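Annotators were shown the component list below and the corresponding predicted structure, then asked to write short factual statements about the assembly.
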Amino acid sequence: MKTDAVRGHLDGLLLAVLEPGPLHGYAVITAVQDRSGGVLELRTGTIYPALNRLERLGLLHSKWESVGERRRRCYELTDAGQRMLAGERTAWQEFTTAIGSVLNPDTAPAATRPAT
Amino acid sequence: MSADGNAAGKPAPADPIESHVAALDATLHGPVRLKARMMAEVREGLTDATAARTAGGMPSEHAAREAVREFGTAKELAPGFQRELTVAQTRHTARAVALTAPFLIICWLLIWTSDHGPGWQQPGAARLLTLPLAVVAVAAAGAAAAALLGLAALAATGTLARRLPTPRRLPAAVAWSGTAVGIAMALATLTLGVTSALTADWPLLACAGALTAASHGVVATSARTCRRCARLPAR
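Structure shown to annotators:
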């Protein structure tokens, strides 16, 4: 999937991979790639300003942590981030259901079909 | 062997990671601390990406070049980083204006109350104060308006931005209102300096003038950086 298509969903992707626990920037990148089976293409450099923005909005909290001789900035979800992730999941479910109903009308749930 | 070359006199190949960080760093402007933090994170991320490749058997220099290629070019990434730096600088300027604008209002109150104090009973003293009062009153009113804009900007770029898009022209608006407040503070400093030289209450007014001058330094510097950030492309 191309970078432009992924960009609109980047916030939700980042929040989702941080749900199990804190990660540093490169671990966030590999988590997105691993979970998507390598299908999602994104410039890895776009992750860092996105993480910074989510922190500014109070959805993430970050701090420097030492790992051996290296220092890495680790991010974790805040309570507001958890709520935002739940909202993103609901919105995505509704979106994919609606699009699926149009693209595959035969498999659409009966409740969504208009009465004739 | 020279510090920057090998025995054959050829320049040593630049470290791809450091070259990339330097190229990105050179295109960005904004708060020094945040920019340094961002560049440190980029360096760490590229180092991690290189280490992951070398662990898979790739030669280190090739691994570093691959990590940089996957990261994206400075031209591709700069607007995203600059957007965050511009918002951070906007918030810095807005905060500076909101915190220092009350000084101007206090200065106006100082001159106003000095007018009615025991040191101001001589004939003509009230007339002498009319101009400084007017100058500082106009400056204080402008600063109060800018402070309100600053508070609105802090809200619009903070948690409110979870639901509402941040206006694209907000950084420029805050930058120019900060510039106006900086000019108002310079005028107020001058006015307080002149007034203190003419009054018996000079220590208080001189102290207020010094504080206003310091506020001018903070606000004008932040507004200048904010104007520069607001002119740069951001996404």
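Statements collected:
1. DSSP finds seven helices and no strands in chain B.
2. Helices of chain B lie at 16-27, 32-55, 60-71, 74-115, 125-156, 170-198, 202-231.
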